[in-house]
Amino acid sequence: MENDNQVIKITGLNKEYDNGRKAVKDLNLKIYNDQIFVLLGHNGAGKTTTISMLTGMLEPSSGNIEALGFNLKTDMEQVRERMGICPQHDTLYDELTVKEHLQLFGTFKGLNSTALDE
Length: 118
Hints:
Elements: E1 6-16, E2 22-32, H1 47-54, E3 62-67, E4 70-71, H2 76-82, H3 98-108, H4 113-117
Antiparallel strand pairs: 1-2, 1-3, 3-4
C-alpha cells in the first residue's frame, strides 16, 4: 500500500445489478488507521452495497478494494480473519434459509465444516 497508515483503499468501485441498476458508481476512498470513519447518505445511496462489497457479501462489478494490505478479490479469507463489521441491526437475508444463515454467520466466526454441520 502506498501509505503504511492506510487501512482500506477503494479505487473505482462500481456495482451494477443484472437489472441495470447502478448502486455504486466510481467510488474512490481511503480510510486510515486511528481515524473514525462514517459512511452517511440517503436511502438508496449505496451504503449497504458498499459495505457488502467490503465484507465479501457482494462481488463488485468493477474496481479494486485493498484492506490491511490484502486485495479483496484474491485474499478475502485473510481479510475476514482480520476485519469484521457490526451492523446497526440484525441482518437477515430474504434469499437465505435459517440453516444457510447459521452457516453464513458460523463461517464468519471461523467455525470449521464439522462444527457448522453440528
